[in-house]
């Protein structure tokens, strides 16, 4: 049975107000009475009523974070750094996974609001004015990362468009003139929030169109591997496969090896994200690294600053670096 402050007051022969002052280290009681109350509370295993305290203070010291899933190492790593920063500042985290389900995402956000979280960080799958109006009605600070909402909501990520442009320049500097760009999420354009794939795609197109004597193909098929095989076989010169994510690049490396297409002798491959599993890949994959830990830490830090009433930037860009390995 849960021990109450009323029971402690009865045992100690004092008022509930006196117990409250002792438990919350407030003045107005003697050291002897405080010590007696604290000793009884400890012996009985007393724990304060968290929700009742939250109502009085107007905050719960909790945050919500909404991710697609944690199968992708980017998201699991981001969550760890987000949670570590929040915990350092005295906040507890509710983690929910939308699984890229728009209705489930809204249901989970409502659940977080029902639990009176002080703020929410999310990588949204929903978008548009109706969804943003729903978020505004929550009356709690909202911050996004990865997929962006409109400029009205603070956003923490990298400059995806510029990063892909630099990737194209890097590949061209290695002598490639034929590109195969792989981004299956683009097939969902207009159906859901795919801000990150769209920005990377825009950057790729802008980079290619700014160059002369460049040939390129964009693959958005769900079953992209057979299309890649056909394009590699038809290419007049050695092509470079640029992927919008390391996950696709790893799949392609395995597929090419199965079909005895050597990397980089027959085709070059480059990914994006620098997930930690790349440490075990052969040949080592050229990719773009960005500081996921910094994104998680800054997201928590800025969200908490916003909760405390401080103005925060509407866009925070984290740096990135091309990691040149043996796959080009």
UniProtKB/TrEMBL annotation:
> Is the Transcription regulation keyword given for this protein?
yes
Keywords for this protein: DNA-binding, Transcription, Transcription regulation
Q: InterPro entries, alphabetically?
A: HTH_LacI, LacI/GalR-like_sensor, Lambda_DNA-bd_dom_sf, Peripla_BP_I
Asked whether the UniProt record includes Transcription regulation among its keywords, one would answer yes
Write down the CDD domains for this protein, in alphabetical order: HTH_LacI, PBP1_LacI_sugar_binding-like
**Gene3D superfamilies for this protein:** 3.40.50.2300, lambda repressor-like DNA-binding domains
Where the record annotates domain HTH lacI-type, the positions are 3-57
Q: Which PANTHER family match?
A: LACI-RELATED TRANSCRIPTIONAL REPRESSOR, TRANSCRIPTION REGULATOR, MEMBER OF GALR FAMILY
Record protein name field:
LacI family DNA-binding transcriptional regulator
Native source species? Paenibacillus solisilvae
């Amino acid at each position: 049975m849960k021990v109450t402050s009323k029971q402690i007051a009865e045992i100690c022969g004092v008022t509930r107000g006196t117990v409250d002052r002792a438990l919350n280290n407030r003045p107005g009681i003697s050291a002897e009475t405080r010590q007696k109350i604290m000793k009884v509370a400890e012996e009985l295993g007393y724990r304060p009523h968290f929700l009742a305290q939250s109502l009085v203070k107007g905050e719960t010291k909790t945050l919500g974070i909404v991710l697609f899933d944690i199968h992708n190492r980017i998201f699991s790593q981001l969550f760890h750094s987000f949670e570590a920063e929040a915990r350092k500042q005295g906040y507890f985290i509710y983690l929910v996974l939308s699984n890229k389900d728009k209705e489930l995402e809204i249901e989970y956000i409502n659940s977080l609001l029902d639990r009176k979280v002080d703020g929410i960080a999310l990588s949204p799958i929903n978008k548009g004015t109706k969804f943003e109006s729903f978020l505004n009605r929550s009356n709690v600070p909202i911050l996004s990362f990865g997929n962006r909402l409109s400029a009205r909501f603070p956003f923490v990520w990298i400059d995806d468009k510029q990063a892909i442009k630099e990737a194209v320049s890097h590949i061209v500097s290695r002598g490639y003139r034929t590109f195969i760009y792989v981004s299956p999420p683009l097939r969902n354009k207009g159906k859901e929030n795919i801000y990150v794939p769209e920005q990377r795609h825009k950057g790729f197109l802008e980079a290619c169109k700014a160059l002369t004597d460049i040939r390129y193909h964009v693959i958005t098929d769900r079953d992209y591997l057979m299309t890649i095989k056909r394009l590699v076989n038809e290419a007049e010169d050695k092509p470079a496969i640029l992927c919008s994510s390391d996950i696709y690049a790893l799949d392609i490396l395995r597929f090419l090896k199965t079909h005895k297409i050597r990397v980089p002798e027959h085709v070059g491959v480059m990914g994006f994200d620098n997930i930690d599993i790349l440490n075990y890949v052969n040949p080592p994959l050229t990719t773009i690294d960005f500081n996921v830990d910094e994104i998680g830490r800054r997201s928590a830090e800025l969200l908490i600053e916003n909760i405390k009433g401080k103005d925060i930037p509407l866009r925070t860009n984290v740096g990135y670096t091309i990691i040149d390995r043996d796959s080009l």
